[in-house]
Amino acid sequence: MAVGGGPGDNPVKRPPGGRGSGPAPRATAETLAKQQRAISVSEFFAKNRHLLGFDNKRKALLTTVKEAVDNSLDACEEAGILPEVEVTVEQTAEERFRVTVRDNGPGIVTAQIPNVFGKLLYGSKFHRLKMARGQQGIGISAAGMYGLITTGKPVRIISRIGARQPAHMYLLAIDTQKNRPDTIAEEEAQVDWPHGTEVTIELVATYNRGRQSVDDYLELTAIANPHARLVYRPPGAEPIVFERATDALPPETKEIKPHPYGIELGTLMKMLKETQQKKLGGFLTREFSRVSSSAAQQVCRVAGVSANTWVSAVTPPLAEKLYTALQAARLRAPATDCLAPIGAEAILAGLLKGVKAEFYTASTRPPAVYRGNPFQIEVGLAYGGELGSDSRDEEGQESRRGNGDDTAQARLIRFANRVPLLYQQSSCATYKAVTETKWNNYSLSQSGGSLPRAPLVILVHMASVWVPFVSEGKEAIADYDEIRKEVKLALAECGRRLSLLLKRKRTKAHYTRRRDVFTRYIDEVVHAACAMTNADADRLRRDLLKLSQVYTARADMEFDEHGKVVQKRSAGEAALADTIVVERDGPAAETLFEAEAAPAAGRRKRGSRAGRNKRR
Fold first, then answer.
1. What is the pLDDT of residues 528-583, one digit of tens each?
2. CB 47 within 8 A of CB 40
3. How many domains are contained in the chain?
4. Is 475 a member of any domain?
5. Are residues 349 and 316 in the same domain?
6. pLDDT of amino acid 377
7. CATH code of the domain in which 223 resides
8. How far apart are CA 511 and CA 547, in angstroms?
């Protein structure tokens, strides 16, 4: 029996040869307590910066530009200013870049500059149920933190709130242990612009062109934000200007209260503690969206309380009954004036500006709800033109040239609240909805579980007060059934319009080929007939040409989706809802466009668009 051991003791045997003669001291509750300390959010994200989109050098450059541009566009739109954003990327060393983004927004008051750029999870958008590009107050301050970690250089901010106000310059670093700004310098600055904000971040990164690059991001941003003017100065190249395609700002959005269907029991109990309302009826009608007085009384009655019950008297068991009654109540969907979708006409304008195709169509779905949060899905398609040729021939069959392998796969561009999503495509709900759509029903070639093989660009945009991203990097949308369903419905609507165009083209091409066969052998038939008879050659040729016109008349006609003949349309005449067809092969481009029945406010006359397409 070991000395000092008691019944049930099982001492740990340690291998000999360690330091000292006795066993190493074991941790106690007191020693463990001394090792514990609070972790700030800045410390956490400094170690886990891949969660914010800084997991490699190329992506770090893109994320820095993205966060700064998103903030600029949000600030300009909230102030009712048409955005003008300048992005400059300078290479200062082999893997060191200086990013400068300047906007013409309202500027930032001096007292708020340190917190906005030097403190994570600080902002005005997290607690608001209102559509905005930013949501968490992390992005731009995280970009500054990454720059500080990799280069040791602080963030430089210049902001001016008015032409009569001086501009202020700050040099800021982030104290990661305390998640607070560290002001290195502050002074007035001389600038030649009346109002706006300029932020400069130096960071370790790499620059590449092509997909998932800064160039790609800005090009897609210009498509989803046709009201913005973007000036981009890439390293070692000439500036690129994305001119605005419309002078109309997105509709102003309004903040809404949370909807009962979108909260949990713990959230309800927290709201009961923090509300300023005294009575339960007032709490339900004023702290929630779409809860009327009659609905509040019904909820209270089901929960076994009165609308005049004091909020302070609601116990946890009573709160649970109240929550169950709220979830079971029949309430109206949340208000949708908190959303500002791009709109079908603006999507068409953006696609016309950024994609040279022959067919454009767009669709905006009615508002829907997931987890009590309103959202809208929009889809745009661009087909043909300089995107390439289809893998199907005029008869609608797969081409024998490699069975369609010579045709590139369709390109999907995804947006959330007007912001391009460039990474994690396969994890996104929009990608899954596109691949699950049966594009063969719309005259396009598709293999199972993949994008269609066609000269096609598919644009999918989700507008919501709270986009359910799969990570803090905001790169993909979570897979909710409600979201996937709305995407599929919008795709089906645009797909039917595209199918109508393709069927018309293939029917017309079929009869055109038949006419070519007739006319190719007319001279031989006339020569043979005249050799056997004394027929008039010129008259016989005219008669045969007229006959070919009669039997191939469909080459000059238009057809509906059922193959029935419709009257031939003239330039600018109605064709399809929210659709543009550009005949780029003719001497003058012909545009056919019709907008859906909608209020006239904010819509321009369609005829003016045809002239612009002719100049293309």
1. 878 788 778 888 888 777 777 766 665 555 544 444 444 444 433 344 778 888 76
2. no
3. 3
4. yes
5. no
6. 95
7. 3.30.565.10
8. 14
- Single residue among 216, 242, 268 that ends a domain in this structure: 242
Give the residue numbers spanning the domain of 275: 260-328
Q: Over 446-508, what HEC string results?
A: CCCCCCCECCEEEEEEEEECCCCECCCCCCCECCCHHHHHHHHHHHHHHHHHHHHHHHHHHHH
290 and 141 co-located in one domain: no
Query: For the chain, what percentages of helix, strand and coil (3-state, to nearest 5) are there?
Result: 40, 20, 40
The pLDDT confidence band at residue 401, using thresholds 50, 70 and 90, is very low
Question: Do 522 and 559 fall into the same domain?
Answer: yes
C-alpha dihedral sign at 291, 293, 299, 304: positive
Q: Does residue 103 surpass a pLDDT of 90?
A: yes
d(Cα 489, Cα 368) in Å, to the nearest integer? 12
CB atoms within 10 A of CB 50: 14
In a domain, 27, yes or no: no
Parallel, antiparallel, or unpaired: how do β-strands 579-583 and 359-364 relate?
antiparallel
Taking the C-alpha atoms of residue 215 and residue 90, their distance in angstroms, rounded to an integer, is 14
Per the listing, tokens 């609601």 go with 314
How many degrees, rounded to 5, is the angle at CA 491 between CA 487 and CA 496?
A: 155
Is residue 611 one of the residues assigned to a domain? yes
Do 280 and 169 lie in one domain? The reply is no
